[in-house]
Design a protein that fits this description.
This protein is of the alpha/beta class. The protein has helices at 14-32, 45-51, 57-65, 77-80, 89-99, 123-126, 163-178, 194-207, 220-229, 241-251, 292-305, 309-324, 345-354; strands at 2-10, 35-40, 68-73, 104-110, 130-136, 146-149, 154-157, 183-188, 214-219, 236-239, 262-266, 271-275. It is built from 13 helices and 12 strands. Helices cover 41% and strands 19% of the residues. A 10-stranded mixed β-sheet has the order 2-1-3-12-11-4-5-10-8-9, sandwiched between helices. Strands 6-7 form a two-stranded antiparallel ribbon. The structure holds 3-isopropylmalic acid and magnesium ion. The site of magnesium ion has 2 residues, from helix 10.
């Protein structure tokens, strides 16, 4: 198979982890007889520094032209404490999602057995947890009208959803549930928010098309509690943009570390695959970042954008073997990990490559 992949490392540890992601894709291509070509492009803080624009037109065009995008992270601490900054790295990410029509963000939360003790949740609660989140990605309070009034003393962000937007993400989630345990939990705040009442109404309607799927509706606050109390009760979870952002960071602890979680953003055109961790400037350049989320993002890319299931499994199995052999990056090490088994980014990447 011939495919063109755009690598967009972005900021911070994005550079280090996507370098490993590209290497494992190369190895897969060699092993399975595919031809992958690559290009790179700028986004986020590095793009602002180079061009003044967090999503340069050239990057957007390259994304549209590619068969898939392997993405790193965006963000820089210099903007975090400067609420007055007019141009921000994150604007690049949000505009990319909107321009590419990436309305569905899939975040699989699956614990590798070897990492049971790396989580802060008790192993007996965690064992067997396997959740697939569908986070809506192009609507909600993220994209509504925002601004200031009363001479800047009052601020507002408008949350908006259309029937169509809820329907298409709901349908994706139901389709996925049909291939899994046929359980779907829709998360909203319908006791307070009008957008959530529309959300619930639409999900109930779509549910009629999938009578085999057992559906429950939960409020977001209760879901935050249930995820930690009993993660195994969930199969597919579908929710709005902001709730999904928050709940998936929480759920990352079920998988041991944010450093393990990959995500796929899909929709109308090119799919974008990225770790859910951010740019992590506190560890940038130190060579200690966990590259496994980028490896697992490459696996999602192969599976979802190219339909290469066996190749994706080869990557997941390689990660599994490396963990079984006892190798850890710092973020997933526990009291049993010997110091010689604690690897940096590149050494961990090498271990994965050797096991493909
Ligand atoms: C994520 C991130 C982004 C978001 C930020 C960087 C804008 O937290 O992808 O989860 O809020 O969507
Ligand atoms: Mg987030």
């Amino acid at each position: 198979m011939k495919k063109h992949i755009l690598i967009v490392p972005g900021d911070g540890i994005g550079q280090e982890v996507t370098a490993v992601g590209k290497k494992v894709l190369d190895k897969i291509a060699a092993k399975f007889g595919h031809e992958f070509t690559y290009d790179t492009a700028l986004i986020g803080h590095v793009a602002i520094e180079a061009t003044g624009n967090p999503l340069p037109e050239e990057t957007l065009q390259k994304m549209k032209d590619a068969d898939a995008v392997l993405f790193g992270a965006v963000g820089h601490p210099k903007y975090d404490n400067d609420p007055t900054a007019k141009v921000r790295p994150e604007q690049g990410l949000l505009r990319m999602r909107k321009e590419l029509g990436l309305y569905a963000n899939l975040r699989p939360i699956k614990l590798f057995d070897e990492l049971l003790s790396a989580s802060s949740i008790k192993p007996e609660i965690l064992k067997g947890a396997d959740i697939l989140f569908f986070r809506e990605l192009t609507g909600d309070i993220y994209f509504g009208e925002k601004g200031r009034k009363n001479n800047g003393d009052t601020a507002f962000d408008m949350a908006e959803y259309s029937r169509y937007e809820v329907e298409r993400i709901a349908r994706k989630a139901f389709e996925a549930a049909m291939t899994r345990k046929k359980k779907l939990c829709s998360v909203d705040k319908a006791n307070v928010l009008e957008t959530s009442r529309l959300w619930r109404e639409v999900v109930q309607k779509v549910a009629l098309e999938y009578p085999e799927v057992e559906v429950e509706h939960q409020f977001v606050d209760a879901t935050a509690m249930l995820l930690i109390k009993d993660p195994c009760r969930f199969d597919v979870v579908v929710t709005a943009n902001l709730f999904g952002d928050i709940l998936t960071d929480e759920a990352s602890q079920i998988a041991g570390s944010m450093g393990m979680l990959a995500s796929a953003s899909i929709g109308d055109g090119t799919g974008v695959y990225e770790p859910i961790h951010g740019s992590a400037h506190d560890i940038t350049g130190k060579g200690v970042a966990n590259p496994l989320a980028s490896v697992l993002s490459a696996a999602l890319l192969l599976d979802i954008s190219f339909g290469l299931r066996a190749e994706a499994d080869a990557l997941i199995n390689a990660v599994d073997k490396v963990l079984k052999a006892g190798y850890r990056t710092r973020d997933i090490a526990d009291s049993h990990t010997t110091s010689k088994n604690i690897l940096g980014t590149d050494a961990m990447g090498e271990q994965v490559l050797n096991n493909i």
